[in-house]
Hints:
The protein is of the alpha+beta class and 418 residues long. The chain is 54% helix and 19% strand. It has helices spanning 5-14, 24-63, 82-90, 132-137, 156-162, 202-205, 213-219, 238-248, 258-261, 263-301, 303-311, 316-347, 349-360, 367-370, 381-407, 411-415; strands at residues 69-73, 95-110, 113-122, 151-155, 169-180, 183-197, 208-212, 227-232, 253-257. It has a six-stranded mixed beta barrel with strand order 2-3-7-4-6-5. α2 runs antiparallel to α10 and α12 runs antiparallel to α15. The longest helix has 40 residues, at 24-63. The relative contact order is 0.18.
Amino acid sequence: MQIPYELILGWRYTRAGRATRRNGFISFISGVSMLGIALGVAALIIVLSVMNGFQKEVRDRMLGVLSHIEVLDANGQGIADLPAVLDTIGRHPAVLGAAPFVGAQALVARGEDMKGVLVRGIEPALEPSVTDLAADLSSTVLPRLVPGGFGIVLGGELARSLGVMQGDPVTLISPSGQVTPAGIVPRVRTMTVVGIFNSGHFEYDSALALLHQDDAARIFRLEGPTGVRVKIRDLHAAREVAVELAASLPPGLVVRDWTRQNRTWFAAVQLEKRMMFIILTLIVAVAAFNLVSTLVMTVTDKRADIAILRTLGASPRSIMGVFVVQGAMVGVIGTGVGLLLGLGIAFNIDTLVPALERLLGASFLPQDIYLISRMPSDPQRGDIVPVGLISLALAFVATLYPSWRASRVNPAEALRYE
């Protein structure tokens, strides 16, 4: 099969510096454009992969405390027929575990220090089946939560802010108080700190307190658990499973998944990622449009060659194709090199960053500040494919004007002074 001469000439012009010295500068500019595209694509892939890694790290730590799905009583007074609800949830093929809980807000006081907390009354035997945090504490801290013992487990940041340790007493104040002749008096209960946990997520370490669900129901005067926490096989299918559970459960229950519980945070992360994608794409666009100056210089230098081709019968469309091929070659090679470089760094960033830290004598992620000591990375096909396609598209668009200009060269004018 005969190769079209447009491809042969386009490739020859791309590496013209090897054949003649007068084209050395043009070849250098072409190489700079190729390098710019490669670095832009690599930077885009690395940044998006690191952002994905941080998002995954925070999501995993968040889901170590939260459940994938929560089934709540709409009135907040306790689920009436809890065994039937647990049985319905357990029959769903996607469900791995379910555990009842009591959710409420209260104040925890120690001396003059007082903090608002999210109280979660749990069943220690069932809670490890729905959260990783409970699974980690199942053999150490959770057995200390016994009915009637009024023990409490505090987050690490919350315990430090109150200045308490295991075994210290704290005061739990319920906002829904008792009605007396003197007015509404908040219910107050002395609790014993039986354990401290650290989930790695500041929001929960500073505001979450765990109780036995029987003690929580007694303190807040509830008829029973106010909800059921559910763990499923695929966390990404939480929204679909939540819809299916809502259709099978009796009325009066509200089903919400983990994406709705943290909608604001995930929306902010997606907006930040989208803006970073746009900003870094401009780097690729600048590098791609350097091809315009490269091809304009090539067209000016090759006017005599274009004129000879036209006199030999080449059509303006074929002339345009030659320079489109030249620009496309630069775009394809630059994009390919950028993809290889970006993926190579993204997949090995856990090795490269520590080496760079040792070389510079610095720590990019101090563990006492960021709670993680390694740079996370999660390259995803949904980011990599669009980056490659956009880079190729920008390189192709950059070739259109110089190629059209080459096709409009007048052979007689070009050969007049040759």
